[in-house]
Write a structure and sequence with these properties.
Layout: E1 2-5, E2 9-12, H1 17-28, H2 34-55, H3 58-76, H4 82-96, H5 99-119, H6 123-142, H7 145-170, H8 181-187
Antiparallel strand pairs: 1-2
Helix pairs in contact: 1-5, 2-4, 2-5, 2-6, 2-7, 3-4, 3-6, 4-5, 5-7, 6-7
Amino acid sequence: MVETRAGGGTFVRQASADDLARPLTSLITRGHTLTDVIEVRLLIEPAIASQAATRRTAAQLAELREIFAAQERKVASGESYAEEDARFHELIGEAARNELLVTMLEVIWDVLRSSRDQWLQTNQRAHASVDAHRRILSAIESGDAEAARTAGAEHIREVGEGILKLLSEVGTGVLNPPEGPRNKLEKGTR
């Protein structure tokens, strides 16, 4: 990144993950369909799980086990587990040790937060999430990058399909649609 200071000149400065987050947030919420966002998530999250399987520390693995156990307890007692679900994914991102990928994913999670929280609210979905997280955790525990990638992809695919189905039932599939040619084409009003 280049920074210009009045009277001081132009300097090269270290780019931060936040420097990417602002334009990425703007890009993602610019009327893209949820399908677009879920497809990006499907590209990123399995790769993060794969990296976490080979890069995680013992302390990160212990914390993943702890948050997974908390999620299991909450699901078993019928409580909301959205915080544990989000933290599980965040911990995998931290274990992958790639700040840029994690920042990109955090932006996507923020965009999907409300639909994801709605998706998590049924007992069947709660148990499916626990089962998927168990497979991901098992692969990360064993250091199996390919199994972590596969389990992560299956989980994101299932959640994505569920979110799209849920939103189709309420008649929306576009994130903050702008007025413009693309939105009009999607509505069929050219």
